[in-house]
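thought: user wants a sequence for this fold. calling inverse folding tool.
action: design(structure=
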């Protein structure tokens, strides 16, 4: 599970950097839906860090507020599962 989260966050971070470079070159871009999907499947922290480090998508309010909202929802889900009387085991 930890390796998965590391990998998907690196992918989210890299996707922001790659898309920024492609935007400067006016090349084929990574669809915004794909950038959001990387965040939704667990790469929200990496995507947020990449967004701010590369100054990419920071003028788009749905990224500026959407990515942190995804992270908050993910954290709330983890806390709810942690505090749940039903024990979940992640491999």
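)
observation: tool returned 91 residues.
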């Amino acid at each position: 599970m930890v390796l998965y989260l590391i990998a998907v966050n690196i992918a989210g971070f890299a996707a922001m950097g790659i898309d920024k470079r492609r935007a400067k070159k006016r090349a084929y871009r990574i669809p915004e839906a794909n950038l959001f999907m990387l965040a939704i499947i667990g790469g929200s922290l990496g995507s947020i860090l990449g967004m701010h480090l590369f100054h990419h998508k920071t003028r788009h309010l749905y990224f500026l507020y959407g990515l942190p909202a995804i992270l908050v929802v993910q954290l709330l889900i983890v806390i709810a599962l942690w505090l749940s009387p039903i024990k979940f085991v992640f491999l």
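thought: summarizing for user.
answer: Here is the designed sequence. The chain has four helices and no strands.
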